[in-house]
Prior knowledge:
Order of helices and strands of chain B: EEEHEEHEHHHEHEHEEHHEE
Strand order of the largest sheet of chain B: 6-7-8-3-9-10
Strand content of chain A: under 5%
Number of strands of chain A: 0
Helix content of chain A: over 70%
Strand content of chain B: 25-35%
Radius of gyration of chain A: 20 Å
Oligomer: heterodimer
Radius of gyration of chain B: 19 Å
Number of domains of chain A: 1
Amino acid sequence: MTGSGLSARAGFWIALLLLVAALVAAFGIGRLPVGLGEALRVIVARLTGGTADVAPTVETVVLAIRGPRILAAVLIGAALSVAGTAFQGLFRNPLVSPDLLGASSGAALGAVVGIYANLGVIGIQAAAFTGGLAAVAAVYAIGSRLGRHDPMLVLILTGVVIGSLLGAGVGLMKYLADPYDQLPAMTFWLLGSLAAAHRLDLAALGIPVGAGTLALVLLRHRMNVLSLPDEEARALGLPTGPLRLAVIVAATLVTSAAVAAAGVIGWVGLVVPHVARFLVGPDFGRLVPVAALLGAGYLLLVDTVARSAASVEIPLGILTAVIGTPVFIWLLAGAHRSWS
Amino acid sequence: MLAAEELSFGYRGRPVGTGLSLALRPGEVVALLGPNGGGKTTLLKTLIGLLPPIAGGITLDGTAIERLAPRERARAIGYVPQAHGGSFAFSVLDAVLMGRTAHQGLFAAPSRRDRAAAGAALDRLGLGALAARPVTEISGGERQLAMIARALAQEPRLVVLDEPTASLDFGNQGRVMAEIRALGAAGLGVLFTTHDPNQARRFADRAVLIRAGREVGAGPVDRVLTRASLEALYGAPVEIVGGGASEPTAFLPGTPAPSRS
């Protein structure tokens, strides 16, 4: 039960409906509108090797332009939301997002270094991914050596400190960058965008994001106990040490890959878990799948707005912040009670 | 049976108690009494394997406790901590289902068997009607009963409770203690800490008195809990009211207030 009056099943259907609506909008909005059925026919034909019986331009839009972007938005939205849900449970804190341990700031530094070195899209993606993993590994190595009484708190603080050091590194690279060419590229990248999705290596995004998300989804039934204080969880028979590490590794894979592909997209991993909890209650078994659906639909809708609302692309990070802030304040104001 | 021999316990570099021996058998209710800061909670955590012993050994049915995996320990011993520290408003049923962790695979959803065990534990403690309510919205007494139900859902042979009636009102203290007594009657070994010698005397078979990490008395409650032993244990005056000196009805802390007539 949820304490919010909705049944868990209704919450699941609401999240699924949002995703379907987002898919309809994402294929339908653009210079060449494509119906969801039409798009599905093209995709099925591609997968089975048949013919879709649609105009070649439609096929190009679905397979080469809008499709990859939609796939990236759905994957990243779901992954960041699942990782945020897991982290909020693991760290028992409603203000936690999946980049808590430095994944975003590490990836950001990697990316600006890549832009500074003129590495190209794939090179920047690789540099960002490596930066995110390295940052969290450093935070974990330092934090777990310091933490005695409250290892989780020490880890959070270490993440904050290392994150601000990495932020200084990003600042330095922006300062050194060519102001006419590299600096705008860095700024645009740091605000987050899926505009380059069709040029990305989607396998390089899909494998770490898919693997990390799958691990978190599979472990979801253990997350209820993992959200208890360490001793209580161990007394219930949960091997908390290895499990915590597994959740951190999975969330870091997901976040680093997402940031590497689309830049820094804040707020999704912070706000979506709260909305999902509002819909289906705090049980992670129900919560994690709903957070995945909701996050996928939400980021896809936001990205559709980002590419279609104005004559130029609106950076995703700006939209997610503009939407995320009031939603989060509304949630904090006590509209729900899933945090005690 | 859970047995500790010549146990030294505490945190690394900060021993809390030494030379303690204790046994908990099935069907037996044991109360642990002692002043604040005397090491009761640390002892409980050491006994159930959450803290490594500094010296001496703890065995569970003959096996050293530190050789058991967390899930093996949790299948044998249920633990009810002093304060439930969860952050989320889980339903009572979901909270009790957490007691099934030691019976579940890493990726498993709660099975029909898990739900049956959780439901049985809820019914046993009379909480069936509260199953869907958030744990944050029920009374303190109901929450404590739910935590006992969670321990029962582990299907353990022993249950260890840390101050199960702390912060409960008078009526709930009685309810919770009656349930604890019933666990012993049902064949479980029960160990609980308490600040109330009357509670120990009324609901426990044996009492163990701990002061500054050392045992200062152990045995059947009627023999161990005396005015002299309690005054020595707490270093404070204790009065006996009702009955007679040989058969006390109740212990009262402190000295009587001056007559107000």
